[in-house]
Every structure is written in C-alpha cells, then in structure tokens.
Amino acid sequence: MMDFSSLTPVLWLGLIGTPLMIAMGQVLFKMTSQTAGSFSVNGLLSLALNPILITALVLYGLGTIIWIYVLKSVPLTIAYSFMGLTFCFVPVLAQIFFGEPLSLRYAVGALLIIAGLLTINV
C-alpha cells in the first residue's frame, strides 16, 4: 500500500490536477462542437484551425505529460483511481459554462466516486 504522507505537494497537484485538466478539455471540446461545421474537407480544416480545439488539445497534452511524471512516483493502480475525479469535475464545469443542471443523483454519484477513491487509497 502506498504511504500518502510521502507524496509531495507537486505529486498531489498532478494526481488531482490532471483529471481537472482532462475535464476542462472536455468542456472545450463541447464548446468546439457548438461551432463545428459539416463533416467535409472545409469543415475539418476549419475544425483543425479552431483555437478552442487547439487549446483543448494542448491542455490534454500538458495533462498527459504531467501524468507521465506522476506515474514515475505513484503506482498505476493508485494513480489511475484519481482519474475517476473527471466524473465529478465535468458536470460541475458543464453547469458553470453551459448551465447544465446538477441533480441530487449527480451529488450522490460524485460522493460515491470520492468514497471509492478513499476506499481504494486509504
């Protein structure tokens, strides 16, 4: 079992920050989808040059690089459980940016995810 007291603040930032960056990327993908044209050469070219999509891809890439460095110090079985946080972060960000509703079912589900994360790692 991993001793969490040995994790540095930087590792904690990576364990929590990477799922947050992935969640933010999903919000940016949704924003991109609202301006996406048809599935044609012109539409794909326009999509490829979309600054929101480029930002999302950079965010995903940065998150991936940070994740690689987290995995140098944290076992994959421990680290990957933190990716469940994306299921908590995405709906909150969707509510903030798109006004999508949050329900009691979401809150219960998010609490279960966090409880599962704690069960796996504590």
TrEMBL record:
Highest taxon in the source lineage: Bacteria
Annotated keywords: Membrane, Transmembrane, Transmembrane helix
Gene Ontology CC entries for this record: membrane
A UniProt-annotated Pfam family: EamA
Membrane-spanning residues: 7-29, 49-71, 78-98, 104-120
Record InterPro entries: EamA_dom, EmrE-like
Limits of the EamA domain: 3-121
Protein name per UniProt: Undecaprenyl phosphate-alpha-L-ara4N flippase subunit ArnE
